[in-house]
Amino acid sequence: MRNQSERDTRHSERASHEREHHSHGRGRRGRLFEAGRMKLLVLYLIQQSPKHGYEIIKEISDLVGGDYSPSAGTIYPTLTTLEDMNFIALLDAERKQYQVTEEGKVYLTQQQDMLNALLEKLRLRREIHGNDQLIDIHRAMENLKTALRLKLNVTDLNPQQIHRIAEKIDQAAVEIGRL
């Protein structure tokens, strides 16, 4: 077991890295999993039954659907964090199989609303990706994301341009809501 100051330092370093990762908007994790959501999902999956890292990667890939699969570089540090927080513990040290602790169960209970919202978001994502009737909507969503990414990465936008882009997106959302 690590002492408290080592855990605090590692947790602070990880939190700093995650903030930097999310602030740059890189990778799918930033879009799919806002701060703390991946930890919550991993803890939820381990609560279902003890698991090792590879099983978690596979289950998240299945749960999210589409072309998403979390990397080992995401899952294993998440497991370390959950272990440092005393939310999980090794069940089988040889296979690195984890189980949820009582503290982890309490945390899951406290976070039930956030977990339900995350699971619903993932269900809707799977439905959109898996439904051939919605393929045009999925394509259009990807086109919008690509156009925004290109515009934001290539151009230094002034406040007026930023406002106009946001206004166009808001108008589209209102029109879609009225359909």
What does this protein structure show overall?
This protein has 179 residues and is mainly alpha-helical. It has 2 domains: 30-129, Winged helix-like DNA-binding domain superfamily/Winged helix DNA-binding domain (Arc Repressor Mutant, subunit A), CATH 1.10.10.10; 131-178, no CATH class. It has 9 helices and 2 strands. The protein has helices spanning 4-23, 27-32, 37-48, 53-64, 72-84, 102-110, 112-130, 135-154, 159-178; strands at 88-92, 97-100. Helix 3 (37-48) packs across helix 5, helix 3 (37-48) crosses helix 7 (112-130) and helix 4 packs across helix 5 (72-84). The model is unreliable at 1-30 (pLDDT under 50).
CATH topology of the largest domain: Arc Repressor Mutant, subunit A
> Can you give the mean pLDDT?
79
Helix content: over 70%
Structural class: mainly alpha
Residue share in β-strands: 5-15%
Number of strands: 2
Assembly type of the chains comes to single chain
Shape: elongated
- In N-to-C order, the SSE pattern is HHHHHEEHHHH
Protein name: Transcription regulator PadR N-terminal domain-containing protein
Pfam families: PadR (PF03551)
